[in-house]
Specification:
Blueprint lengths: L5 E5 L6 H14 L4 E3 L18 H12 L3 E5 L3 H9 L4 E4 L1 H4 L2 H10 L7 E4 L6 H13 L5 E5 L17 H9 L5 E3 L1 H5 L2 H14 L3 E5 L17 H9 L12 H37 L7 H17 L4 H19 L2
Parallel strand pairs: 1-2, 1-8, 2-3, 3-4, 4-5, 5-6, 6-7, 7-8
Helix pairs in contact: 1-2, 1-10, 5-6, 11-13, 12-13
The protein binds phosphoenolpyruvate and manganese (II) ion.
The site of manganese (II) ion (MN) has 5 residues, from loops.
Length: 340
């Protein structure tokens, strides 16, 4: 099962010794899971929320290492966390999204891990800025550690649709293009925010070609102290992993694929051509508006445009959100060039 897929599973937070050990045992029995995760220092948005059990949870995680076949990791966000994790001889660490956002924090962690060659899993920053992610990875690579992994946990937008964090797949795909040597793990739990959506995100990521999965698994999600709505049970994890199909051919040069790719290339060229013509008309319009002293933005016209396009999208069975985004972008660019 899951040949070639690196699977990390475990609760969002370590809560009690029993919860940690019983969850780990059930995960270990599934087979195919390599790493156990559990957070002991939890970055919470609001004060007065459960902020993790702290260093005493390390003992429980050490016990997982001793009593199961799983390797163990936790989140570190500062040199004190690193010191404690190293004392406890955990096998690896992950860097949370809030930490990757800040190069000062990353640098401090890099320095406190210098000379320690344990795997470091770096989550993307909360905001969709690929450079912060790459910068974090490069800081670790520069320190001589070559066991670096990236974790895609989604990005925070004003509107995340049905997800907790928007997947925005183009950023991890771009990371893969720029840093092909760095394995990318998907974290469907933090993307989806809902246990019912976890499996679909996991499947999508694996079919895209991600190298692994990090999944939040709790022996009793309803009672979880953090992220309870997105954690799945060990039994659900087993089903999820059984239902995942891993693409086996890294390069496909089948005749049929090449023909279809050719058609897509042609259509994309046509799209660019059409957009260029459309922008040309926008410039003509801008001149007329200028001569007649009419403001560039005509809100009624924009509302009507969006309405008609979404209606057509519905008829053609295309995702309306997607079409809306495309036309918002086109309109934004059109306004920009009209204003020049
Ligand atoms: C976590 O993995 O529990 C966590 C806090 O993740 P993130 O940094 O992605 O929010
Ligand atoms: Mn979590």
């Amino acid at each position: 099962m899951n040949k070639g897929l690196l699977v990390i599973a475990g609760p969002c937070s370590a809560e009690t010794k029993h919860q940690v050990l019983s969850t780990a045992k059930l995960i270990d029995n599934i087979g195919g899971v390599e790493w156990f995760r559990a957070g002991i220092w939890k970055p919470r948005t609001m004060p007065n929320q459960f902020e993790g059990v702290g260093s005493r949870g390390l003992k429980w995680i050490e016990e997982v290492k001793e009593t199961t076949s799983l390797k163990v990791m936790t989140e570190v966000a500062n040199p004190y966390h690193v010191e404690k994790v190293l004392e406890s001889k955990l096998d690896g660490v992950w860097i949370g999204a809030r930490t990757t956002t800040n190069p000062f924090y990353i640098q401090e962690i890099v320095e406190s891990l210098k000379g320690v060659d344990i795997p470091v899993f770096i989550k993307n920053p909360i905001n969709p800025d690929i450079n912060l992610w790459i910068g974090g990875i490069e800081r670790f690579l520069k320190s001589g550690n070559n066991k670096i992994y990236a974790i895609h946990r989604g990005f925070s937008f004003i509107d995340n649709g049905k997800y907790r964090q928007t997947p925005y797949w183009q950023i991890p795909i771009e990371l893969k293009r720029l840093m092909p040597q760095i394995p990318i793990i998907c974290d469907p739990s933090h993307i989806s925010g809902k246990s019912s959506l976890v499996s679909d995100i996991a499947k999508t990521s694996v079919s895209i070609g991600f190298d692994g999965l990090m999944l939040e698994v709790h022996n009793n999600p309803d009672s979880a102290l953090t992220d309870k709505s997105q954690q799945i049970t060990p039994k659900e994890l087993k089903t999820l992993l059984n239902n995942i199909r891993i693409p086996q051919n890294p390069i496909s040069n089948l005749e049929s694929i090449n023909t279809l790719r050719g058609e897509i290339d042609k259509l994309d060229m046509d799209l660019i051509d059409i957009i260029s013509k459309r922008m040309g008309i926008s410039i003509e319009l801008a001149q007329i508006k200028k001569v007649n002293n009419i403001p560039i933005l005509q809100i009624n016209r924009w509302e009507e445009m969006i309405r008609l396009r979404l209606e057509l999208a519905g008829e053609k069975n295309i995702n309306k959100e997607f079409i809306k985004e495309i036309f918002e972008k086109i309109h934004e660019e059109s306004i920009r060039i009209q204003g020049q």
